[in-house]
Amino acid sequence: MKLDTFACLYVIRGEPFRSGTCLNLTAAETVVGRASNSYSPDFAFSNAFISRKHIVIRKEEERAVLYDLGSTHGTEINGVIVEPNQPYPLKSFDIIKLAKGMTVLHFSYLFADQTLEFEPLSITQRWDEPNGPLTIHWEKRECVVDGKRIAMSEKEFLLIQLLYDHANRLVPIAEIKQAVWPERSVGEDGVPDVTMDELNALVYRIRKKYGKDTFLISAVRGSGYVLELHNK
C-alpha cells in the first residue's frame, strides 16, 4: 500500500547510491536488501554482504519500526546489534548499519533534511578498524596513537569526548556548540555563536593531528556529526 512520504533514509555509504541520496519511505512496508536474478527489494544495495531481504521498515501507528529479517551479517542501530525479527522503533538521527557498516543509513522524520548533503570528513568507504592502536587517557587529556603520545587541546578534548560518548549516533550541531564552546555568547536561537567554519576547522585539525583514520568522523551537512566506532 502506497502512502505519502512519512520518513526518509539518507545514504551515508552504500553502493550503488551516491552519498546523500534520499530514499523516501512511502509504503506501509519497505524491504531493504540486495537484488538477485529472482528478487528485487524496494531499495537494493549491491554489496555482496547485504542479504537479499536484509531489513524491513514498517509503518506502525504513525511510527517507523525496523525489523532485521534474519540477515547473515547483521544490522546495528546506533551501534547496538538488532535481534532478528524483533521490532525496533526508529527515531530521527538514528544511524542504521547493515553488514557491520558496509552500508550506513541515516533515518529521519524531518523533511527539511531533504536538502542535506553528506560530507565525508573521513574515508567513508572504510568500515574496518583504524590501522593503528588507539588509547585515550581522558584524565590526562591525551591520546596514544601507534605508541605516540599526543596531548589534546581543550576544544579537541571536548569534541572528541562528546562524539565518543555518543559513538555511532548523530550528534546535532547545536549540542556540539553548547558542549565545546560554553563560554561563547548565545545567539537568538539559544545556541552559542560559533560559525560552521570554526567547527569544520576543529574537525580538520583533529584529523590532521591524530591521523585521518584514528577518529572516523563523518559530517551530515546542516545536521551534525557521527563518530564511527565499531569496538565500543
UniProtKB/TrEMBL annotation:
| PROSITE patterns recorded | FHA_DOMAIN (PS50006), OMPR_PHOB (PS51755)
Keywords, alphabetical: DNA-binding, Transcription, Transcription regulation
At which residues is the DNA-binding region annotated? 122-229
InterPro entries linked to this entry:
Cell_Proc_Reg/RNA_Proc, FHA_dom, OmpR/PhoB-type_DNA-bd, Sig_transdc_resp-reg_C-effctor, SMAD_FHA_dom_sf, WH-like_DNA-bd_sf
Q: Which residues form the OmpR/PhoB-type domain?
A: 122-229
Give the matching Pfam families: FHA, Trans_reg_C
User: Which ranges of the sequence are coiled-coil?
Assistant: none
Which PANTHER family does this UniProt record tie to the protein? NUCLEAR INHIBITOR OF PROTEIN PHOSPHATASE-1 (PTHR23308)
Know the name of this protein?
FHA domain-containing protein
In which organism is this protein found?
Paenibacillus oleatilyticus
**Lineage, highest ranks first:** Bacteria, Bacillati, Bacillota, Bacilli, Bacillales
